[in-house]
């Protein structure tokens, strides 16, 4: 399945085609820019690693995840976010999916473009502490994750787990990071 097909499925699945607007940019005052995020879908012995974190809506459950930083590839960002939020190293081995989701609050309207990866979790680094805002890490069964849906930071927590359980895996090479991206650190 091509990247374009995966994106079309995500757009249709989340009913956000209207956000994309007309392909003709004439008359547009601003360009729509989704926030790019990465997430680790980590399963071990039938349980998934989640983090409990402070959000504006209170304590929520999420995959180890966060925003892609300037100059890094999605796989590097996923490894970094996992280390920051769990103190464990993570090596992505496959892309689970690419997702679009919209968050609307009274004061903001954000669309997220999420790259979710599965892979190999390493040992915890005892010299590190959890990232600011992360309360704890926890391992949950699929049943527990379904039962706690009201506490999820995003509907993508459940969707990514379900796609992983359905065997969705795409080669890492599906997402290419051009060398010019790394040049952002040298500017």
What report would you give on this structure?
The chain is of the alpha+beta class and 187 residues long. It has a single domain (36-171), classed as Nucleoside Triphosphate Pyrophosphohydrolase (Alpha-Beta Complex), CATH 3.90.79.10. The chain has six helices and eight strands, in the order ααβββββαβββααα. The protein has helices at residues 3-13, 17-20, 74-86, 142-147, 156-165, 179-182, and strands at residues 35-41, 43-44, 47-55, 58-62, 65-67, 88-105, 108-124, 134-140. It has a four-stranded mixed sheet, with helices on both faces. The radius of gyration is 17 Å and the shape is globular. The mean pLDDT is 88.
Task: Please provide a brief summary of the model.
This protein has helices spanning 3-13, 17-20, 74-86, 142-147, 156-165, 179-182; strands at 35-41, 43-44, 47-55, 58-62, 65-67, 88-105, 108-124, 134-140. With 187 residues, the protein is an alpha+beta fold.
């Amino acid at each position: 399945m091509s990247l374009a097909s995966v994106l079309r499925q995500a757009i249709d699945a989340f009913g956000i085609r209207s956000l994309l607007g007309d392909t003709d940019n004439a008359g547009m005052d601003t360009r729509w820019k989704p926030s790019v995020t990465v997430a680790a879908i980590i399963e071990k012995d039938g349980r998934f690693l989640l983090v409990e974190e402070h959000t504006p809506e209170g304590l929520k459950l999420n995959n180890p995840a966060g925003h892609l930083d300037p100059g890094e590839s999605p796989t590097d960002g996923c490894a970094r976010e996992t280390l920051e939020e769990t103190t464990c190293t993570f090596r992505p081995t496959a892309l689970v999916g690419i997702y679009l989701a919209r968050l609307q609050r009274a004061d903001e309207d954000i669309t997220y473009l999420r790259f979710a990866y599965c892979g190999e979790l390493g040992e915890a680094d005892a010299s590190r502490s959890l990232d600011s805002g992360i309360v704890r890490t926890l391992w949950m069964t699929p049943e527990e994750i379904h039962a706690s849906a009201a506490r999820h930071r995003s509907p993508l927590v459940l969707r990514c787990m379900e796609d992983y359980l359905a065997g969705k895996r795409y080669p890492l090479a599906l997402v290419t990071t051009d060398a010019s991206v790394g040049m952002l650190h040298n500017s």
